[in-house]
Amino acid sequence: MYFDGFLCASLASEIDRRLKFSSPFKDPAQYRFVESVDGRSWTVEDADKHVSAEFKLLRKKEREGGRKWVNEAAVACTITHRDKLLNEAAERVCFLCEDDVVIDGSFIKHWQCKMLRLKFSELNGLVLGCYSSHDIIEVSAEPLLTFGKFGVYEFLGSKVYSAACYFLPPSLAESVILYQTPVKCISDQWETIRRTVNFPIFLIYPAPASFVAFSSNIGYGNFRVSSNSLFWRSIRKLNRSVNVNHYTNKIVFKSDG
Known about the structure:
The chain is α/β, with parallel strands linked by helices and 257 residues long. The protein is built from 9 helices and 12 strands. An 8-stranded mixed β-sheet has the order 2-1-3-9-5-10-8-7, with helices on both faces. Strands 4-11 form a two-stranded antiparallel sheet. A two-stranded parallel sheet has the order 6-12.
């Protein structure tokens, strides 16, 4: 029996992204879109109403340095995760996604199995379907569970990023919501979050979600060119393609010894 086990945050106007995300699904009942919070027209003051005093100071420092990774769009994105995605994950078991990924069709099929969803919940931690790190990603030598070509491994490092495709059991989703009220960091800063909300991190390998090289349309990140000409759209797409490669071929399996 199919169910909307994949929730994707996306702006309703992003037809191309929605079509690409939905392309591997055999049945539209397997996924559902939720409307993203659109922070493109927000002022600094608009965003600062939603953040902690410490995060407000960090935003000011980064803004003065010309960096955008905690800009207004980043705050809106984090609120999307908190109020639209995690809010639903606190009620039921589901995978949370952003609209710049495509899910592996075989993983979608596996996720329809109730027993697999139960095993994921019993891990009582964060399970990443997309991941990145500035360092080599070290994981446990043996998977905690396997299904088809996939394995779930415990992450052994300190910093891993991405909120593009992930799973949290309902109780942990509630705890992250509480931590992020008000917003204290952006949505993929998992190490910062788990300093207060104690939880293990797991990775699915091979990754069941791959990034699509869409250029940013919300000004999120350090790419500062604001022109929307065909030339600069192509450059942004190339920049995104390079970033996609940052998410692959960095896994090292580490034994206890």
